[in-house]
Amino acid sequence: LIYLTLSRTKIKDSALDTICEKLPRLVGLKLSGCGKITEKGLRSVVALKDLQVMGLRKTNISPPVIQELI
Asked: pTM of the entire structure?
């Protein structure tokens, strides 16, 4: 599995941590509309070294945090 779309789900930070741990080779991750993901939870995505595409529309993640991840 290299692409995962979780858009408009009720995923929380703890589940995102697990996904990043279990699927370290993800290339694409879409979290658009996932209002329960916080900036703290998104920091686990940094471990995904192969990540090239990430969807974060309609989330509560601030632009400075997104810039930090790029």
From this structure: 0.87
